[in-house]
Design brief:
The complex is a heterotrimer of chains A (429), B (246) and C (242).
Chain A: H1 2-30, E1 37-41, H2 65-72, E2 77-91, E3 126-132, E4 143-148, E5 158-162, H3 163-168, H4 176-179, E6 183-193, E7 197-213, E8 220-222, H5 224-235, E9 250-257, H6 263-273, E10 277-278, H7 281-323, H8 325-333, H9 338-381, H10 394-420
Parallel strand pairs in A: 3-8, 5-7
Antiparallel strand pairs in A: 1-9, 1-10, 2-3, 2-6, 2-9, 4-7, 5-8, 6-7
Chain B: H1 2-23, E1 40-46, H2 56-61, H3 63-71, E2 76-80, H4 88-94, H5 96-101, E3 106-110, H6 113-118, H7 122-136, E4 142-146, H8 155-162, H9 177-197, E5 201-203, H10 205-209, H11 225-237
Parallel strand pairs in B: 1-2, 1-3, 3-4, 4-5
Helix pairs in contact in B: 3-11, 4-7, 7-9
Chain C: H1 3-6, E1 10-21, E2 24-36, E3 41-45, H2 52-59, E4 69-72, E5 75-76, H3 82-91, E6 93-97, H4 108-118, H5 123-136, H6 152-163, E7 170-174, H7 182-199, E8 202-206, H8 210-214, E9 218-223, E10 226-229, H9 238-241
Parallel strand pairs in C: 3-8, 3-9, 6-7, 7-8
Antiparallel strand pairs in C: 1-2, 1-4, 4-5, 9-10
Helix pairs in contact in C: 4-5, 4-6, 5-6, 6-7
Classes of the chains: A alpha+beta (429), B alpha/beta (246), C alpha/beta (242).
Chain lengths: 429, 246, 242
Amino acid sequence: MVSVALAASLLTALVAVATTARTRVLDQITHGGPLSSISVSAAAPSPGQGGLDNPTPGHAKALTGAALAQMGRIAHVTAVIPVLQDRVIVVPPAAPPSGSRLCLAPPDNESCHPSGTASPVAVPAFDDSIVGINLSDRSSIPVSLLAGTYPSPRSTTELDVTLSYLSHLGLGQQQASEIVGTDVEIGAFSVVARGFRIGLRWTTAEIVGVVTQQAGSGGLLTYPGLVRADFAWTAAGRAFGDSDAPKSPYVAALVQADQLSHVQGVRNAIAAIGYSSSAPQDVIVSVEKYLHVIEIILTAIGAVALVIAALGIANALLASVRERRREIGVMKAIGARDFDVMRTFLIEAGFLGLVGGLLGVALGIGVFLGIGSIANGYLIAQGLPGVPITLAWQIPVGAVLGATVISVLAGAVPAGRAARVAARQAVEA
Amino acid sequence: MRRAGLGAVLGALALVGALAGCGTAASVSGAKPNVTKPPVVDVVFGGIESSEVSSRSAVRSAWPKLLYRSVLGTAGQLYDFAQPGQTVAGALAEDRAVGARLHPDLVTIWISTADLLNGTPLAAYRLALDALVASVGKSGATVLIANVPSFERLPFYQACLLDPSLCGASRRTVPSPAALQRAIAGYNAVIASVASAHKARVVDVAAVLAHTSGLSGASISVLSAAEESAVERAFAADIPKRLRRR
Amino acid sequence: MTAAEQEPTILVEGLSHTYARRGSAVEVLRDVRLRVERGAYASLVGPSGSGKSTLLSVLGGLERPQSGTVVVGGTELTGLSGDALARFRRSTVGFVFQHFGLLDTLTASENVELALTLGGMSRAARRRRADELLGDVGLAGRAEHRPFELSGGERQRVAIARAIANEPEVILADEPTGNLDVDSAAAVAALLESLRDERGTTLVVVTHNPALAALADFHLRLVDGQLVGATALEGVDRDRLA
């Protein structure tokens, strides 16, 4: 049973690690978005580059609401998620939240010590972009949470920041959670009169989380509402001759195909509408092949361990049959049929497998969680987002069932031998 | 053997259950309830004293921003039309329309420096200020108008005397200290009467800045940090409770 | 007296049995003839290797007769299938072994129930019957004890309770007192005798214990696979059996 437990734990841990590693690698390629996600740029397609994963976009072309609606009607498209963006001035808080030992200061400010003894010089305001995307369907967008939470839907006073915001404040990812709860002021420019008279629209939002995101290029991320209002302010400048003000708030869109094999077709249709797109489809296909091989190898190692454990069970049961010949004889003497004896041994084998499997899975989950937290510690130390340590229920269930079934199969030979023990053994000396 | 095995099964199940429990510990949502009140709209008309664009640090510390931060924060939106060299007539022509369309709840006006330096006649100043206040106050906004401080003591004026190009004015239009004193008195009378006509409030920055050394500013063109916050407190004191969110 | 009751419980004609041992055939039983009437108590003695165990095995259906005729409790054992033999063992005979043959992991009650389980009885009925049987053998308070918690005599009484669980016509006992002290042996002997007296069970007891053998109605003696001595009922009051 110990061998079954160890094998089942090995199998569980290996399969779980392999599956998680696979998710991690594909996440890295798709930046957390789904595998069949297409990124549409606000640019015309370059001729002859339609088949490339990452073509060079053609000339800039406003991504309009009408164009997005058209993309939504392409066959096999399940979702079109627009990405809004506006250029803003960002004013970080002058002082850290009360009770925090954070040092909010420019990175090169030597007077700032984490001990907080010296009074830090405030971080200057800086130019950045605010990105707006519907954060409700997180599985479809290239965003991963590092600390805190996501803004509440429809809120115009909550946002998440990225690591670039932290580096403006001279903070590392380790301090990400401490920035949560602070306010940030966002200033949107607009030309408000002829002669480039500038008016600034200031709003204040609370930082509720820290993310990595590849949806747009900007240090602030929130739902579209806030960005839309800022964009409207900026775009109003066109009326006063600001021809640089963008015509559309959409800088990009994420178009989801229903499956990987339809990605190219959807991209062709997007090109026909007149926009450049990119998708990591070729990379994903080849990486998936390699990952599949790794998964097979790791699963095979676990399975071989389980088979060896099963042979151990068979051996132990054979020994048990030899030792218990007289007991088997007695069973038969009091009326047990060969089948009854066989069944008893099969049940015993299955029971060993089940208990071993359960113990092993528990151990395996522990090992997996341990490996996961070590790996996450390493990733976070490297400034990378951690891996979600979740285990598909199929893995432990499969391991327990597998251990049980293999043990029953392994018990077949000893059970058959037990069934053939002569009833006469009951009276042999 | 059978009993021991059953115990092991139960133990394993309990362990699996405990581990499953660990796995479901989700991140606690820190989301606050949405702000349901509409944001307070704060519109700033101003000149050099209210301006934020002269340096990056001013973005943080100009008094309109200090006021917005201390009184409104996430509950407000600040529309800042202040710019160096702005006159009341300029604000009326350029910013009034946009400002009024924003349906402000709070309007602050501190425009006098450029008018004084450019020699805007009292009558023209009154006409423009009256039209501006009438227009932006139409939607029932609380309008706060700053009066004119003892100008000659401010570093900005001192600098302008030395080099009028710093103020965008020619040497001819920079008034002497004595002429300035008379003009300031006339402007303040206009400000008081326009405010009273439109039920606006006058913020007495003249009194607030009366005791400043006039040389304490960090730069020649802006108020010192202490002066910025003194002005901010003066404005804040005149803001009615219903507009305060912090 | 009915026709069935007139039939002997055990009737053996011309039984021979051969084992292959180290390449050569060893004839352990030679033309055994035996007739044991219903309710009789037969002791079976003989030197070691004389074929006592083999005869007991054949009578109890543990082994198929190789030749001749063996009828036990009205069942002709020659040519029975494995499952039919198991059915026969379950319903017609009960075994009592020198080594008791109890399962160590089960309680006294569960050991008795095991025989009833194989007979297909429901759980509740099994439990009731096991308690009743343990009461009959004087172990009412020991139902939840495991074999290692019981004395030798108590273990053998549990084994006897199990042997009679399915109300067999024949009890086959192989040195039932061989591992017991004198007092326990006497108690077991008395219990076996009472089975015959109270239930009319036919007993065939292999024993070296003179006291136990003395209770028998007649003695069978195996020498080199051949039965010598009494083959018929002697000194038994037939009327008592009627």
